[in-house]
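The instructor's notes for this session suggest beginning with a concrete chain rather than abstract definitions. Hand out the sequence below and ask the class to guess, before any prediction is shown, which regions might be ordered.
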Amino acid sequence: MVRTANAVWNGDLKSGKGTVSTQSGVLNDTQYSFNTRFENGIGSNPEELIAAAHASCFSMAFSAQLGERGITPQSVATSAAITFENLTLTKSQLDVTVTAPGADRSTIEEAAQAAKEGCPISKVLNLEITMDLKVEG
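After discussion, reveal the predicted structure:
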């Protein structure tokens, strides 16, 4: 399986602008710029897209790990915060809430750790990954 995306940049670094699109069409000429990356402009940026990829990949991996342990979660909600400093991605903080009524907490924690280490996006990121896990249900 191969997934694709493309980006086009026009102009110099600070005043130029770019667009990014994905094969699925979910992103279609989505705007990004120096302002959206290094300040708080409206549009996307590579770090936000990595955070989205990490959060969604982790949620799926966690659900799979829970399933391997006989737990079907009602929901897994994950937010990822990517830290970008000195032109380097240094950390991904995963904030996770799992709702799994009746499930054993230690089993859930074990599954979360396995997902954190085994999710394909976690494997590709060369940064510190931390996790705050909240169990409901």
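Then share the key points. Residues 88 and 127 are 9 Å apart (CA to CA). The chain has a mean pLDDT of 96.
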